[in-house]
Amino acid sequence: LVGLRRAAARVLLGNWTGSSTVPSRTLYPHQWSWDSAFVALGLRHLSPRRAQRELESLLGAQWDDGRLPHIVFDAATPEGAYFPGPDFWRAGPFPGVRTSGIVQPPVHAFAVWEVFRADPAEAERRGFLARAYPRLAAWHRYLRTRRDLGGHGLAAIVHPWESGMDNSPCWDGPLARVDPVPPSRFRRRDLDHAAPGDRPTDLDYGRYVRLAAHYRDHGYDDASAPHAFAVEDPAFNALLALSELALARIAAAVGADPAPHRRRADEVVAALLDRLWDASSGLFLCRDLRGGGLIREHGVTGLVPLAVPGLPVAADLLRTACGARFGLGRVHMVPSYDLTGPAFDPARYWRGPSWFNIGRLVHLGLLEHGAAERAAALRRSMLRAAARSRFAEYVDPLTGEGHGATGFAWTAATVLDLIA
Ligand code: DGY
């Protein structure tokens, strides 16, 4: 493990830009929102101070309405290095800071609290929690108010990229209604660095571009944008609940009232159970707010609520995790999509491959709900897969073979977090 730890540290040092960490030097040469949170969870074991700065640089790009953008563009990186770059999004909170206009899952307050705990004295000296608290509270407020498009207490995502699980089969139905921009109208940069069979298709990209351009052309205003895609996603909301619980702890530590945050966490969990729980499959499903109804695809997003303490349906979720669909203990890590599903593809991004951040959240859930042996086995499987794949972005759940980028930041960070 000493060698693996050293190799993981090398990846994170190599991806550090001076104020944050790029997920990959080739495929993703800027700062990504939920990547940064997972990276900070690992960085705290190398340098708590650097982990604080990672999160602070993201919080520093917060918009006036409270949203945390999904990408903060590195000013030194040329426009052509990534598509869609800053010239496409035409957004940012203030001059000099260019960002995208969509968001990613709210795992940040959870990460801030864990980073704080790694070195409370240093955090105190730097005023880390006191500065982070109002920003995190405003972020959650944005999600609770402007993003409650269904009106039932859950935040909606308005673009598949906001789920972080870009091309999950869960989005195929809602995306089918979106008129794709023809591939001749944009130039994908991801295919310069990754195999086409590992990535979303051109048709997916055409729809991603259409949705993002629409939102942009409405000034990223949630009230007036038409939102052809609007979905309630279980992982997104479970992470919001987990982060509200962390925010309660942060509030107490800075002398604010923790009670509203605890109450909100309870409300999100109640809405998750009410709106997205599917007893017949023992899994949380996504709800399409445009087409109406639950989306009957079984994505790993539906297992992520296991990470929420006290979840009433944890035993059912555990059974589902170990069953035929997700094969926990029998395949490598946790597949991103139903192994028995018609759209399962072991190599293509979020249509089957196993991801390390998700593995970490499921690991947390297993520990939380008394499945220590299963958690230990998953941990071993993740460490093995990371070592064998040179910190791949994701792995084939059936063979353990790496796909996507190597030297991927949250893979290395997760290894550090699991070893610590
Ligand atoms: C990408 O570029 O593939 C990202 O997932 C979008 O944020």
UniProtKB/TrEMBL annotation:
Q: Which Pfam families match?
A: MGH1-like_GH
Recorded GO MF terms: Glc3Man9GlcNAc2 oligosaccharide glucosidase activity
Sorted alphabetically, which keywords does the UniProt record give?
A: Glycosidase, Hydrolase
Transmembrane regions listed in the UniProt entry:
none
SUPFAM superfamilies named among the record's database cross-references: Six-hairpin glycosidases
User: Domain of life, per the record?
Assistant: Bacteria
Q: What is this protein called?
A: Mannosylglycerate hydrolase MGH1-like glycoside hydrolase domain-containing protein
Species of origin reads Actinomadura rubrobrunea
Organism lineage reads as: Bacteria, Bacillati, Actinomycetota, Actinomycetes, Streptosporangiales
